[in-house]
Design brief:
75% helix; single chain; 120 residues; 0% strand; mainly alpha; globular
Length: 120
């Protein structure tokens, strides 16, 4: 039960972080609690002012772009996610080949009648 509670708290905090970053992308250099709350409320999400305040204190004086870059380095050092892209490409290749074959068959049948029907 504690793990579920941790995940819920984490997800709610991520909402605030995402709203903060969206506001920065929109041109607000240092979004305030009021800015984040207004954005979330505009899409029907209620805010927990205490969690939002904690997040804003943690972000105070830090550059979000640098935090993202540091986090990305940490994630890549963990590994584990690299197999998905090659696997997806392996699945996509036969599908693309099938589409080419279908297209080729359609082209051949169109060429055979050269636009004339049997009973025209």
């Amino acid at each position: 039960h504690l793990y579920w509670l941790y995940k819920c708290i984490h997800l709610f905090t991520m909402r605030y972080a995402a709203a903060y970053m969206l506001l920065q992308l929109g041109g607000t250099d240092k979004p305030s609690a009021k800015d984040v709350e207004g954005l979330l409320n505009s899409v029907g999400i209620d805010t927990d002012k205490e969690r939002l305040t904690v997040l804003l204190k943690q972000l105070e004086g830090k550059d979000v772009d640098n935090l993202i870059a540091e986090g990305t380095k940490k994630l890549t050092s963990m590994g584990g996610g690299g197999g998905a892209a090659p696997a997806a490409a392996a699945v996509a290749a036969p599908v693309a080949a099938e589409k080419k074959e279908e297209k080729k068959e359609e082209t051949e049948s169109e060429d055979e009648d050269m636009g004339f029907g049997l009973f025209d």
